[in-house]
Specification:
Strand order of the largest sheet: 1-3-2
Structural class: alpha+beta
Number of domains: 1
Distance between the termini: 20 Å
Order of helices and strands: EHHEEHH
Shape: globular
CATH topology: Multidrug-efflux Transporter Regulator, Chain: A, Domain 2
Largest sheet: 3 strands, antiparallel
Radius of gyration: 13 Å
Amino acid sequence: MNITFLRLPAVLAATGYKRSTLYLRMSQGLWPRPVSLGYRCVGWPQHEVEAINSARIADCSEAGIRELVESLYAARRSVAFPGALQ
């Protein structure tokens, strides 16, 4: 499975949000938290950004978006790598 990570400028461009709004949405549970890519480096999986944008286009409620974010977190936890700590 090939996963592409988007850095903050790309996420802001894809959503139209400003940085403060993106982080507000994260605190409200309306946007997934980033994945650590290394020391002082984070990114968001592209498929998660696309899923949230699609839900917004489909006029999902905030409750629906929160459910989507929770399902995205569950999918992150279900990814199994040999030797990974659970």
